[in-house]
Protein backbone atom coordinates (compact mmCIF):
# COMPACT_ATOMS: atom_id res chain seq x y z
CA UNK A 1 0.00 0.00 0.00
CA UNK A 2 1.52 3.24 -1.11
CA UNK A 3 -1.39 5.63 -0.91
CA UNK A 4 -2.28 7.42 2.27
CA UNK A 5 -4.12 5.38 4.83
CA UNK A 6 -4.66 6.98 8.17
CA UNK A 7 -5.59 3.95 10.11
CA UNK A 8 -4.07 1.94 12.89
CA UNK A 9 -5.31 -1.59 12.72
CA UNK A 10 -7.12 -3.53 13.76
CA UNK A 11 -6.80 -4.27 14.75
CA UNK A 12 -10.05 -3.44 13.71
CA UNK A 13 -13.65 -4.34 11.98
CA UNK A 14 -16.17 -2.32 10.33
CA UNK A 15 -18.24 0.45 9.06
CA UNK A 16 -21.97 0.35 8.50
CA UNK A 17 -22.99 3.07 6.13
CA UNK A 18 -26.58 1.96 6.42
CA UNK A 19 -26.59 2.90 10.12
CA UNK A 20 -28.07 6.27 10.97
CA UNK A 21 -25.80 7.71 13.65
CA UNK A 22 -26.80 11.11 15.00
CA UNK A 23 -23.29 11.93 16.16
CA UNK A 24 -24.12 15.56 16.89
CA UNK A 25 -26.30 14.49 19.84
CA UNK A 26 -23.77 12.10 21.37
CA UNK A 27 -21.68 13.03 24.39
CA UNK A 28 -18.20 11.73 23.67
CA UNK A 29 -14.77 12.17 25.19
CA UNK A 30 -11.84 12.94 22.92
CA UNK A 31 -9.89 10.12 21.29
CA UNK A 32 -9.96 7.64 18.43
CA UNK A 33 -13.22 5.98 17.48
CA UNK A 34 -13.69 2.85 15.39
CA UNK A 35 -17.07 1.97 13.88
CA UNK A 36 -17.11 -1.77 13.30
CA UNK A 37 -19.52 -4.16 11.63
CA UNK A 38 -19.40 -7.67 10.19
CA UNK A 39 -21.07 -8.39 6.86
CA UNK A 40 -22.20 -11.67 5.33
CA UNK A 41 -22.74 -11.67 1.53
CA UNK A 42 -25.65 -13.51 -0.03
CA UNK A 43 -24.88 -17.03 -1.16
CA UNK A 44 -23.13 -16.93 -4.52
CA UNK A 45 -22.64 -13.16 -4.32
CA UNK A 46 -19.35 -12.95 -2.41
CA UNK A 47 -17.33 -11.77 -5.40
CA UNK A 48 -19.98 -9.22 -6.37
CA UNK A 49 -20.14 -7.96 -2.79
CA UNK A 50 -16.36 -7.59 -2.61
CA UNK A 51 -16.26 -5.67 -5.88
CA UNK A 52 -19.15 -3.37 -4.96
CA UNK A 53 -17.86 -2.66 -1.45
CA UNK A 54 -14.36 -2.11 -2.81
CA UNK A 55 -15.63 0.39 -5.39
CA UNK A 56 -17.63 2.23 -2.75
CA UNK A 57 -14.55 2.41 -0.52
CA UNK A 58 -12.45 3.94 -3.30
CA UNK A 59 -15.16 6.49 -4.03
CA UNK A 60 -15.99 7.61 -0.51
CA UNK A 61 -13.48 6.26 2.02
CA UNK A 62 -10.04 6.73 0.55
CA UNK A 63 -8.93 9.78 2.54
CA UNK A 64 -7.28 10.02 5.96
CA UNK A 65 -10.42 11.56 7.46
CA UNK A 66 -12.75 8.66 6.69
CA UNK A 67 -10.59 5.68 5.69
CA UNK A 68 -12.15 2.23 5.79
CA UNK A 69 -10.24 -1.04 5.81
CA UNK A 70 -11.63 -4.55 5.51
CA UNK A 71 -10.58 -7.84 7.06
CA UNK A 72 -12.00 -11.33 6.57
CA UNK A 73 -12.58 -13.70 9.48
CA UNK A 74 -10.49 -16.88 9.24
CA UNK A 75 -11.76 -18.95 12.17
CA UNK A 76 -14.74 -19.62 14.39
CA UNK A 77 -18.48 -19.43 13.67
CA UNK A 78 -18.10 -16.20 11.68
CA UNK A 79 -15.54 -17.63 9.25
CA UNK A 80 -15.80 -15.92 5.87
CA UNK A 81 -17.55 -12.80 7.13
CA UNK A 82 -16.12 -9.40 6.25
CA UNK A 83 -15.07 -7.05 9.00
CA UNK A 84 -15.14 -3.41 7.89
CA UNK A 85 -13.42 -0.79 10.03
CA UNK A 86 -13.90 2.95 9.91
CA UNK A 87 -11.40 4.96 11.93
CA UNK A 88 -11.89 8.48 13.22
CA UNK A 89 -8.71 10.00 14.61
CA UNK A 90 -10.64 12.78 16.36
CA UNK A 91 -14.10 13.69 17.61
CA UNK A 92 -14.28 16.42 14.98
CA UNK A 93 -13.84 13.87 12.18
CA UNK A 94 -16.37 11.53 13.77
CA UNK A 95 -19.11 14.15 14.15
CA UNK A 96 -18.44 15.87 10.83
CA UNK A 97 -18.34 12.72 8.75
CA UNK A 98 -21.42 11.06 10.24
CA UNK A 99 -23.42 14.27 9.80
CA UNK A 100 -22.56 14.74 6.12
CA UNK A 101 -22.44 11.39 4.35
CA UNK A 102 -25.91 11.06 2.80
CA UNK A 103 -24.50 10.46 -0.70
CA UNK A 104 -22.29 7.68 0.59
CA UNK A 105 -25.16 6.05 2.47
CA UNK A 106 -27.34 6.20 -0.62
CA UNK A 107 -24.65 4.54 -2.75
CA UNK A 108 -24.21 1.74 -0.18
CA UNK A 109 -27.95 1.10 0.08
CA UNK A 110 -28.42 0.95 -3.69
CA UNK A 111 -25.30 -0.92 -4.80
CA UNK A 112 -23.92 -2.95 -1.90
CA UNK A 113 -26.70 -3.67 0.58
CA UNK A 114 -28.74 -5.79 -1.91
CA UNK A 115 -25.76 -8.17 -2.11
CA UNK A 116 -25.68 -8.78 1.64
CA UNK A 117 -27.44 -11.46 3.61
CA UNK A 118 -26.92 -9.96 7.06
CA UNK A 119 -24.76 -7.80 9.26
CA UNK A 120 -24.15 -7.62 13.00
CA UNK A 121 -25.00 -3.94 13.29
CA UNK A 122 -22.55 -1.13 13.95
CA UNK A 123 -20.63 -0.81 17.20
CA UNK A 124 -18.61 2.25 18.18
CA UNK A 125 -15.39 1.38 19.98
CA UNK A 126 -13.12 3.85 21.77
CA UNK A 127 -9.43 3.05 21.89
CA UNK A 128 -7.94 3.20 25.38
CA UNK A 129 -4.63 4.87 24.58
CA UNK A 130 -3.17 4.26 28.04
CA UNK A 131 -3.72 0.52 27.51
CA UNK A 132 -1.80 0.26 24.25
CA UNK A 133 1.69 -0.62 23.07
CA UNK A 134 3.35 0.39 19.80
CA UNK A 135 -0.05 1.30 18.40
CA UNK A 136 0.25 3.44 15.25
CA UNK A 137 -0.85 7.05 15.66
CA UNK A 138 -3.42 7.92 12.96
CA UNK A 139 -2.24 11.53 13.12
CA UNK A 140 1.31 10.62 12.09
CA UNK A 141 0.57 10.25 8.38
CA UNK A 142 0.84 7.17 6.20
CA UNK A 143 0.03 3.99 8.13
CA UNK A 144 -0.38 0.51 6.69
CA UNK A 145 -2.75 -1.97 8.32
CA UNK A 146 -1.22 -5.23 9.45
CA UNK A 147 -1.82 -8.31 7.32
CA UNK A 148 -3.40 -10.14 10.25
CA UNK A 149 -5.02 -9.29 13.56
CA UNK A 150 -6.07 -11.33 16.56
CA UNK A 151 -9.30 -9.87 17.93
CA UNK A 152 -10.37 -10.96 21.41
CA UNK A 153 -13.63 -9.68 22.88
CA UNK A 154 -15.13 -10.20 26.31
CA UNK A 155 -17.60 -8.66 28.78
CA UNK A 156 -16.64 -7.74 32.33
CA UNK A 157 -19.08 -8.22 35.20
CA UNK A 158 -20.19 -5.15 37.12
CA UNK A 159 -18.63 -6.59 40.27
CA UNK A 160 -15.31 -7.24 38.54
CA UNK A 161 -15.00 -3.92 36.71
CA UNK A 162 -12.50 -2.30 39.09
CA UNK A 163 -10.35 -5.45 39.38
CA UNK A 164 -10.26 -5.82 35.61
CA UNK A 165 -9.15 -2.25 34.97
CA UNK A 166 -6.45 -2.40 37.65
CA UNK A 167 -4.93 -5.69 36.48
CA UNK A 168 -5.09 -4.83 32.79
CA UNK A 169 -3.27 -1.62 33.66
CA UNK A 170 -0.54 -3.61 35.40
CA UNK A 171 -0.19 -5.94 32.41
CA UNK A 172 0.21 -3.13 29.89
CA UNK A 173 2.64 -1.38 32.22
CA UNK A 174 4.89 -4.45 32.17
CA UNK A 175 4.56 -4.80 28.39
CA UNK A 176 5.61 -1.19 27.81
CA UNK A 177 8.36 -1.08 30.45
CA UNK A 178 9.99 -4.23 29.07
CA UNK A 179 10.12 -2.92 25.50
CA UNK A 180 7.80 -5.52 24.01
CA UNK A 181 7.54 -5.45 20.22
CA UNK A 182 3.82 -6.28 20.33
CA UNK A 183 1.44 -3.95 18.54
CA UNK A 184 -1.63 -4.16 20.72
CA UNK A 185 -4.39 -2.03 22.17
CA UNK A 186 -7.52 -2.37 24.27
CA UNK A 187 -10.86 -0.93 23.15
CA UNK A 188 -14.14 -0.39 24.99
CA UNK A 189 -17.68 -0.30 23.63
CA UNK A 190 -19.08 3.21 23.55
CA UNK A 191 -22.30 2.62 21.62
CA UNK A 192 -24.10 -0.31 20.03
CA UNK A 193 -23.30 -2.93 22.65
CA UNK A 194 -22.77 -3.72 26.31
CA UNK A 195 -20.71 -0.84 27.78
CA UNK A 196 -18.74 -3.37 29.84
CA UNK A 197 -17.48 -5.12 26.70
CA UNK A 198 -13.81 -4.85 25.75
CA UNK A 199 -11.81 -5.80 22.68
CA UNK A 200 -8.09 -6.53 22.62
CA UNK A 201 -6.46 -6.28 19.20
CA UNK A 202 -3.00 -7.59 18.31
CA UNK A 203 -1.52 -6.76 14.89
CA UNK A 204 1.07 -8.83 13.05
CA UNK A 205 2.21 -9.58 9.50
CA UNK A 206 3.68 -13.06 9.86
CA UNK A 207 1.66 -15.74 11.71
CA UNK A 208 4.92 -17.45 12.65
CA UNK A 209 6.55 -14.33 14.06
CA UNK A 210 4.36 -12.69 16.68
CA UNK A 211 7.26 -11.39 18.79
CA UNK A 212 5.78 -9.84 21.91
CA UNK A 213 8.28 -10.24 24.73
CA UNK A 214 11.69 -8.54 24.62
CA UNK A 215 13.03 -9.91 27.92
CA UNK A 216 15.39 -12.82 27.24
CA UNK A 217 16.36 -13.91 30.74
CA UNK A 218 13.05 -13.64 32.59
CA UNK A 219 9.49 -14.61 31.73
CA UNK A 220 6.60 -12.16 31.82
CA UNK A 221 5.42 -13.79 35.05
CA UNK A 222 8.82 -13.32 36.70
CA UNK A 223 8.97 -9.64 35.77
CA UNK A 224 5.39 -9.14 36.94
CA UNK A 225 6.09 -10.75 40.32
CA UNK A 226 9.24 -8.71 40.78
CA UNK A 227 7.32 -5.47 40.25
CA UNK A 228 4.08 -6.30 42.07
CA UNK A 229 5.06 -8.90 44.66
CA UNK A 230 5.53 -12.62 45.22
CA UNK A 231 3.00 -14.75 43.25
CA UNK A 232 1.15 -11.58 42.18
CA UNK A 233 0.81 -12.81 38.62
CA UNK A 234 -0.88 -16.06 39.60
CA UNK A 235 -3.28 -14.30 41.96
CA UNK A 236 -4.08 -11.43 39.60
CA UNK A 237 -4.72 -13.68 36.61
CA UNK A 238 -7.22 -15.65 38.66
CA UNK A 239 -8.98 -12.45 39.70
CA UNK A 240 -8.89 -11.18 36.10
CA UNK A 241 -10.47 -14.38 34.78
CA UNK A 242 -13.15 -14.22 37.46
CA UNK A 243 -14.00 -10.64 36.43
CA UNK A 244 -14.87 -11.76 32.88
CA UNK A 245 -18.19 -13.37 31.98
CA UNK A 246 -17.08 -16.79 30.70
CA UNK A 247 -19.84 -16.99 28.07
CA UNK A 248 -18.70 -13.70 26.51
CA UNK A 249 -15.21 -14.67 25.37
CA UNK A 250 -14.47 -14.83 21.63
CA UNK A 251 -11.18 -14.92 19.76
CA UNK A 252 -10.80 -14.48 16.01
CA UNK A 253 -7.97 -14.20 13.51
CA UNK A 254 -8.73 -11.84 10.64
CA UNK A 255 -6.86 -11.21 7.39
CA UNK A 256 -6.54 -7.91 5.54
CA UNK A 257 -8.43 -7.55 2.22
CA UNK A 258 -6.63 -4.84 0.20
CA UNK A 259 -9.18 -4.65 -2.63
CA UNK A 260 -11.88 -3.56 -0.17
CA UNK A 261 -9.73 -1.08 1.72
CA UNK A 262 -8.52 2.50 1.43
CA UNK A 263 -5.14 3.22 -0.08
CA UNK A 264 -5.24 0.51 -2.76
Task: Tell me what you see in this structure.
It is a single chain. With 264 residues, the protein is an alpha+beta fold. It is 27% helix and 26% strand. The protein contains six helices and nine strands; from the N terminus they run E-H-E-E-H-H-E-E-E-H-E-E-H-H-E. It has helices at 46-60, 91-99, 102-111, 161-177, 220-228, 232-243; strands at residues 33-41, 68-73, 82-88, 116-119, 123-133, 148-155, 183-191, 197-204, 250-256. The chain has an eight-stranded antiparallel barrel with strand order 1-3-2-9-6-8-7-5. The radius of gyration is 19 Å and the shape is elongated. The N and C termini lie close together (6 Å). Residues 1-29 have low confidence and may be disordered.
User: Outline, from the CA principal axes?
Assistant: elongated
CATH architecture: 2-Layer Sandwich
CATH class identity: Alpha Beta
Helix content: 25-40%
Rounded to the nearest angstrom, the radius of gyration is 19 Å
The helix/strand class is alpha+beta
Q: How do the strands line up in the largest sheet?
A: 1-3-2-9-6-8-7-5
Poorly predicted runs of 5 or more residues: 1-29
Q: What is the rounded distance between the termini?
A: 6 Å
**Topology-level CATH name:** Alpha-Beta Plaits
As a percent range, the share of strand residues is 25-35%
Number of helices: 6
* Overall pLDDT level: 83
Please count the beta strands (DSSP E, at least 2 residues each): 9
| H/E topology pattern | EHEEHHEEEHEEHHE
Tally of individual domains: 1
Largest sheet: 8 strands, antiparallel, barrel
